[in-house]
Amino acid sequence: YRQLSRAVQQDVDLLVWPETVHQEWIPAEAQTLVGKENPFPELATDLIFGGLAYRFVGSDKVEQLNSAFWMQPGGRLAGRYDKRILMPFGEYIPGGELVPAVYALSPATGRLTAGKEERVFALGNGARVGQLICFEDIVGTMPRKTTRAGANVLVTILNDAWYGDSAAPYQHQALAIWRAIENRRYLLRGSNTGVTSIVDAAGRVRAEGRLFTEEVVRGEAKLLEETTVYGAVGDGLAWVASMATAVACFVVWRRRSVPRTSTALASTSGTA
């Protein structure tokens, strides 16, 4: 990644490296990265990279975090975002905090702590980066909240190596594209094995890398400010439509299940 970045960093405003690409543990309170903690000492522009952070909670507990770091030249850390939706049985075991003994059944499973809130990185060129990690870009509420927090462009760093050389990375991207459309924001996706891409606000893939190929995917992203209907109301319309459908189905069922009654009317005429 350093070699590829050296060749282009003078001509770009932002470099994006994938999820957990940096394997040195970084203190959560760190403000400057030096030595092995700094993944790119010769950095000349802004860089977002994935790594692992840790912090002490109390005197006897350490929290581990899957994080996206925003680094500026000189190793200065300008921001950090912690992944909020962790992968079950990969990054943690559900219920493991209550019953720690379950980790003995799967020693290779991580014991990461989920992040608590969205983060927007305000770069000097006017970009306000809404940061996401991995499959957070297929969960509609997360990019929406990040956009509402002020993001005018979305960035996802991801590790899709789990899928190998298959259709799954493209399926992941196909789902993520909807987040760009829903929020009317460009979506930049940086993956370790692919698919790395730039998606515009209409869901069109403007630039795309190949699977398992060392390359730089370059392009421009427009910084957009508009608010969409989905951005304003979220899934509210879907809930209203679902409730209306349920009521309509109930009314139809009720009408069909209630037996109909008929009344025979007799009329007579004549003279007495």
What's the helix and strand layout?
Blueprint: H1 2-6, E1 14-16, E2 25-27, E3 46-57, E4 61-72, E5 76-82, E6 120-122, E7 128-133, H2 141-148, E8 153-158, H3 168-183, E9 187-191, E10 197-199, E11 205-208, H4 229-233, H5 236-257
Parallel strand pairs: 1-3, 2-3, 7-8, 8-9
Antiparallel strand pairs: 3-4, 4-5, 6-7, 9-10, 10-11
What does this protein structure show overall?
This protein has 272 residues and is α/β, with parallel strands linked by helices. It has a six-stranded mixed β-sheet, with helices on one face. Strands 1, 2, 3, 4 and 5 form a five-stranded mixed β-sheet that branches. It has a single domain, classed as Carbon-nitrogen hydrolase (Nitrilase/N-carbamoyl-D-aminoacid amidohydrolase, 4-Layer Sandwich), CATH 3.60.110. A hairpin with a 3-residue loop joins strand 4 (61-72) and strand 5. It has five helices and eleven strands. It has helices at residues 2-6, 141-148, 168-183, 229-233, 236-257, and strands at residues 14-16, 25-27, 46-57, 61-72, 76-82, 120-122, 128-133, 153-158, 187-191, 197-199, 205-208. The mean pLDDT is 91.
Distance between the termini: 111 Å
Q: Could you say how many structural domains there are in total?
A: 1
Helical percentage: 10-25%
Counted by DSSP, the helix tally is 5
Mean pLDDT comes to: 91
CATH architecture assignment: 4-Layer Sandwich
Sketch the topology as an H/E string, one letter per element.
Answer: HEEEEEEEHEHEEEHH
Strands in their spatial order, largest beta sheet = 6-7-8-9-10-11
Number of strands: 11
Under CATH, the topology is which?
Nitrilase/N-carbamoyl-D-aminoacid amidohydrolase
Structural class call reads alpha/beta
The level-1 CATH class: Alpha Beta
Extract low-pLDDT stretches: none
Within CATH, the superfamily carries the name Carbon-nitrogen hydrolase
Biggest sheet record = 6 strands, mixed
